[in-house]
Hints:
Elements: H1 11-30, H2 34-38, H3 48-71, H4 82-89, H5 98-116, E1 125-126, E2 138-139, H6 140-157, H7 167-187, E3 196-203, E4 209-215, E5 218-223, E6 235-239, H8 241-248, H9 257-263
Parallel strand pairs: 3-6
Antiparallel strand pairs: 1-2, 3-4, 4-5
Amino acid sequence: MTGEAGTAVGPAEVVRQIGRTTGTVVAALEGLDEVGLRAPSALPRWSRLTIACHLRYGAQALLRMTDDVAAGRPPSFYPEGRDAQRPGTLEPGAAESPAAVVDSLREASGALAARWRTVTDWDAPVVEPGGAAHLGPVTLGRLAILRLTEVEVHGTDLGLGLGPWSDTFVRAALPMRLAWLPSRRSNHRPVPGDVRRSWLLAATDAGPTTRLAVDGATVTSTPVPPGAPVPDADVVIEAPSRELLALLLGRSSLPVAADFNRAFPGP
């Protein structure tokens, strides 16, 4: 069974890696006292506790969405709307201690892992109601890759020396992110409308080569098959797959990152 966007990484492998990475993240958080949990992370304005709350809510939301898809109900990551609901998901509940947040993160992650081990149709569509759309139309398989993205990327954001990103994550997420850019750019956050530029992203290892082009509101993502002529582009970025993924996720230190992230401002 292949994974999203033609990658050879199947959902079972993705789910296993989610378990491994989540276990590492939770263990690192459990090793901190309250001061350590409240300390700043590598993300501006986010503490380590903010990340723990965010990961906890993600596990709870994806479990609910998986059950909704199975039951034929409309799934939604933020049922009350992203702007209204998201702030409350980034902080502990009333009188909830930081340690209790970490405990509940472990419990929620375990419940999601157990549920996903029972999934048989990873191609099942996940279509949120129009008024509460956050992810755009995806599949259960893509939800699993998105969860792996959350735990891998935010694990390194904790500033606790976790990482590097796993090979499973890079192989699963890079082709998916490249194929998803046209719709993700339009349904996620405001972007400049005056960008007219093209980029050729070429992995220097066994990863993909893709031409991305932006013409105002129109975005195209065109894979370049192995052995095919390399198309022209305004900017050519040759780097290992892991670094190209970091560029797409707004975590790159490449000199071209600022220009690229103006058109594609991260996940």
